[in-house]
């Protein structure tokens, strides 16, 4: 039985080492390709971890620490302030990560496929009634529903004046 326990512990340590190595490699590649986004993501994750631990320690301090201790206020309010600051940092980094850069927005506009256009055509039916009167019936039909709008779209950039 202890041999299997040792084998399991060795396997767990190896898996943790491989996971840590993968995180380091991913972080290094991210710093090379997108340094600002990688740092923002790192601060986002770290602020979440620190804020969660500070919240747990604040609750632990409230319920398990003597309230008449000389340092209770400093410890409790320190953990509470750390939680609030972590929440603010997490909100700001999430906003910055989710915001699409102006260059990316312009690239998305240019890469848009042509929009499908539905064309409606009127069909005129000339009908002769049995008594000899002629009448016309107009019916609207949807035709060429897969035709695309091939007109070039203009994009206004900061260098071009608006018309």
Automatic annotation (TrEMBL):
Q: Which residues cross the membrane?
A: 6-32, 39-63, 75-97
Lineage: superkingdom = Bacteria
Keyword annotations = Membrane, Transmembrane, Transmembrane helix
Q: What is this protein called?
A: Uncharacterized protein
Q: Which organism is it from?
A: Bifidobacterium tissieri
| Upper classification of the organism | Bacteria, Bacillati, Actinomycetota, Actinomycetes, Bifidobacteriales
């Amino acid at each position: 039985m202890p041999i299997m326990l040792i084998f399991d512990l060795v396997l767990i340590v190896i898996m943790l080492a491989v996971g840590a190595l993968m995180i380091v490699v991913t972080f290094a590649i991210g710093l090379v390709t997108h340094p600002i986004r990688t740092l923002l993501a790192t601060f986002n994750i770290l602020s979440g971890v620190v804020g969660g631990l500070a919240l747990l320690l604040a609750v632990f301090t409230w319920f398990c620490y003597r309230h008449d201790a000389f340092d209770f206020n400093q410890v409790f309010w320190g953990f509470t302030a750390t939680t609030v600051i972590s929440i603010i940092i997490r909100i700001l980094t999430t906003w910055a990560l989710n915001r699409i850069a102006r260059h990316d927005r312009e690239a998305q506009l240019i890469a848009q496929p042509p929009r499908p256009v539905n064309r409606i055509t009127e069909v005129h039916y000339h009908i002769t009634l049995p008594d000899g009167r002629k009448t016309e019936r107009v019916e609207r039909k949807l035709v060429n529903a897969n035709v695309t709008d091939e007109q070039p779209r203009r994009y206004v950039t900061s260098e071009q004046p608006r018309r």
